[in-house]
């Protein structure tokens, strides 16, 4: 089962640069990245609603949602920022540079999140292997941007 989850992460990662290009194209045809991002989120929300109904998921209980910490509500904002920024960056810096920088930022924040065990992540101390991995990724970003 572990290989399934690892494969899923890899495949979804492959979709991320495609999403930025698709949203960038939508921005050309919708008067800007802000509208394209909104359309993207509406389509995504409808898809998730249909999936929840098809899977017969129980509706969330409002009282349970109210107990979530304030920062648990910021995920939608972060997703919107990612989609909006991707639509702007894709035609300006290209898929490779954009994704290299996004992955570098994701990895650095992931090391911090793991180190502190924040936001339901299991705690994993920062170690030399993780530090070297981040440094190699940053070197990769520099090489990608230079050539």
From TrEMBL:
Keyword Hydrolase: no
SUPFAM superfamilies: Multidrug resistance efflux transporter EmrE (SSF103481)
Annotated keywords: Membrane, Transmembrane, Transmembrane helix
Domain of life: Bacteria
GO-annotated cellular components: plasma membrane
Transmembrane segments: 34-56, 68-89, 95-116, 128-146
Protein name: Transporter family-2 protein
